[in-house]
Amino acid sequence: MDMSAGFVVTLAILVFVVVTIAKGVRIVPQGEEWIVERLGKYHGTLKPGLNIVIPYLDKIAYQLVTKDIILDVQEQEVITRDNAVILTNAIAFIKVTDPVKAVYGITDFSEAIRNLIMTTLRSIVGEMELDEALSSRDKIKARLRESIADEAVDWGLTVKSVEIQDIKPSQSMQKAMEMQAAAERERKAVVIRAEGAKQAAILEAEARLESAKRDANAQVMLAEASAEAIRRITAAIGDQTGPMSYMLGEKYIAALERMGEKDNAKVVVLPADLQEAVKGLFGRRG
């Protein structure tokens, strides 16, 4: 009975020693750092590899990843300076460089970085107009990284990169832009049609002006020809009134001929003294 009790005690001591040794030895994986607290207070940071702690006094309070961490920032609505609503989201690449600040300087550094990026993004885009915001992704990214860098350092973090995943108008804004684009296209079409009508009117007016000029020139030439004919007839017959009577008779006969050529002309009435008048004219020429 005494031997059995001694065996149990020995076995218990052996188990206690094994457990104590196991608790005192810590192997930290590569890419991680562990925070050790002793009696509830920060004591030290365990680096990758084999580490020794005091069992029952030291506790592994936090296990931090020191590799690059990818944080996805959710999509949010942002209002631009010209009151346009756009949707934007981002992704951040951060790295824990000071584990102590990362765990004791902020409650949840991942959530803090997300909220900081969202707030800063609203502020940056809010200073821009819609067109500038949609076309300035690199500018927004640079300003965003610069703005959150100082805050991140206070939390023991390094912001390696911030990428704007998407930036686009909201659905209501897209509909408004489509309507505006359609109205602009219609306006341009109206302007083009008006410009075409204007050019056509100008060309028509120029054509009428040119025709009027030619008609005027023709009338001048005809008048000059008539004057020359009268002058020659006067010189030939030596009578001032004869040429005028001759020209009038010639025009009168030509007018009657044109009347007779019309389709609806049935009867052409000649004055009774036409033959005498013409005979008189020819008589004077003789």
Low-confidence runs: 281-286
**How many domains, as an integer?**
3
Mean model confidence by pLDDT: 80
Strand tally is: 8
Task: State the strand order across the main sheet.
Answer: 3-2-5
Proportion of beta-strand residues = 15-25%
CATH class of the largest domain: Alpha Beta
Q: What gyration radius follows from the Cα positions, in whole Å?
A: 54 Å
Globally, the shape reads: rod-shaped
The amount of helix comes to 55-70%
Helix/strand-derived class?
Answer: alpha+beta
Can you count the helices?
A: 8
The CATH homologous superfamily of the largest domain is named Band 7 domain
Report how far the terminal alpha carbons are from each other. 183 Å
Can you walk through the features of this model?
There is one protein chain. This protein is α+β, with helices and mostly antiparallel strands. Helix content is 60%, strand content 23%. The chain is built from eight helices and eight strands; from the N terminus they run αβββββββααααβααα. It has helices at residues 2-24, 99-104, 109-126, 130-135, 137-154, 171-237, 241-261, 274-285, and strands at 25-28, 32-38, 41-46, 49-52, 58-65, 69-79, 85-96, 157-169. The strands form three sheets. The protein has a three-stranded antiparallel beta sheet with strand order 3-2-5. α3 runs antiparallel to α5 (137-154), α6 (171-237) crosses α7 (241-261) and α7 crosses α8 (274-285). The relative contact order is 0.07.
